[in-house]
Specification:
Blueprint (H helix, E strand, L loop, with lengths): L38 E5 L2 H4 L9 E5 L5 H14 L17
Parallel strand pairs: 1-2
Length: 99
């Protein structure tokens, strides 16, 4: 909470953001879940994907931003075999253009 003596939020001036309070907290049952009901799990390689094999109904894999497109293809392929949901499975995958 704001503590400064001149803080406009603490003094609840017009046009400022709402004063933070415990009432804005998230429901514990749904905390850290995405809209589709899955928890996100960040992965960097195929081996980390294997961890989600038994919990594929509650956790979804998310490929890290610095994984190359070559490794991404392998991860996407293995995720389909293991029936693991990927949140960003189509990111950075180039499609071949028909010439």
């Amino acid at each position: 909470t704001p503590k400064g003596i001149d803080n406009l939020v603490r003094r609840r001036f017009n046009g400022q953001i709402a004063m933070p309070s415990i009432g804005y907290g998230t429901n514990r049952k749904t905390k850290h879940r995405s809209r589709d009901g899955f928890y996100r799990f960040l992965i960097h390689n195929v081996k980390e994907l294997e961890v989600l094999m038994m919990v594929n109904h509650t956790y979804a894999a998310e490929i890290a931003h610095n994984v190359s497109s070559l490794k991404r293809k392998a991860i996407v392929e293995r995720a389909q075999q293991l029936n693991v949901k990927l949140t960003n499975g189509t990111a950075k995958l180039k499609t071949e253009e028909a010439a």
